[in-house]
Amino acid sequence: MKYTGKAHTVGANIDTDAIIPARFLVTTDEAQLGANCMEGLEAGWVRRVSPGDVLVAGPNFGCGSSREHAPIAIKGAGIPVVVAHSFARIFYRNGFNMGLVLVEIGDAVERIADGHEIEVDTDAGVIRNLTTGEEIVCRPVPPSMQEILDAGGLVDYVRRRLEAEGRV
């Protein structure tokens, strides 16, 4: 799958409270959470984002609580993919479970600046910086994780499997 959009960079150790502060956790509605995405980092941050844009982060993105609201908020903001130096492990799993694509690229993340146009090709394992012409090789999304993403998240993935087996 290919995703093309403007990069929105954030720093290191962005925790789930920065992604979606606790005061907004009165719902799991994707649109409502998305309207407040990154409010803990910068008020009104989401107004700079257009559907399809890419969030680019430093090390340990998504640290903090295990709330699944954080990846839901990012998706609700219209961001389908996050590229980061690295992810906190629980956020990494929650992201895929909620249908959010996550790509780790280590120090190469520093080659993407705020506002660059980038293309993330998760099948080929390549990120193309359309602003600079550079390519960054990354690991493709594993097939088992791609199946979860294709279903829209873990709940829909399990539902499809149970239906296919005639168990629901």
Automatic annotation (TrEMBL):
Keywords: Amino-acid biosynthesis, Branched-chain amino acid biosynthesis, Leucine biosynthesis, Lyase. Pfam families: Aconitase_C. It catalyses: (2R,3S)-3-isopropylmalate = (2S)-2-isopropylmalate. GO terms for molecular function: 3-isopropylmalate dehydratase activity. Heterodimer of LeuC and LeuD. SUPFAM superfamilies: LeuD/IlvD-like. HAMAP family: LeuD_type2 (MF_01032). Residues 54-105 form the Aconitase A/isopropylmalate dehydratase small subunit swivel domain. It is an enzyme of class 4 (lyase). Signal peptide: none annotated. Belongs to the LeuD family. LeuD type 2 subfamily. This is 3-isopropylmalate dehydratase small subunit. NCBIfam families: LEUD_arch (TIGR02087). Pathway: Amino-acid biosynthesis; L-leucine biosynthesis; L-leucine from 3-methyl-2-oxobutanoate: step 2/4.
